[in-house]
Amino acid sequence: MSSNEEDKHRGHEHSDWNLNWVLGGVITLVISVAVMLSASWWIFREFQGWAANRRMGTVVVPLAPPEPRLQVSSTDDWTAMLEREQAILHSYGWVDRSRGIVRIPIEREMELVAKRGFPAAPVKGGPQK
Fold it and tell me: Which residues contact 53 (CB under 8 A, 6 or more apart)?
């Protein structure tokens, strides 16, 4: 090979990358980072001001729902419901007097089931006994 041909093979290709594209990418990256940092700073300042106003009590308490308010105190309502259910579970009473259906305490029912067992469930579509 001649020295001129060797010089062609030893160098690099000038078409591998384009300096304009590289610089454009770097500039785009820098601008994007600057925009994101500016937006983050603005959001942080907004939330910081909101938190400061809340600490100073300038934020109005959330509005109560309109009337009629069906549940004023959920804790009291929950406690009252549990007490009612416990009273039903541990007492005798009528469920349907006209049909003769009564309610017995759960402890007594468990004793009866332990002694007698569960009643057999009817088989659907099978022969009747």
Answer: 59
Whether residue 92 contacts residue 104, with contact meaning beta carbons closer than 8 Å, is answered with yes
Whether the Cβ atoms of residue 77 and residue 71 lie closer than 8 Å to each other? yes
Q: Report the residue count for the chain.
A: 129
Return per-residue pLDDT of the chain as tens, 129 residues: 556 666 666 666 666 678 888 999 999 999 999 999 999 999 999 888 877 776 665 555 667 777 887 777 788 888 999 999 999 999 999 999 999 999 999 999 999 999 998 888 888 876 655
pTM: 0.37
Tell me how far apart the alpha carbons of residues 73 and 86 are, in angstroms, rounded to a whole number.
20
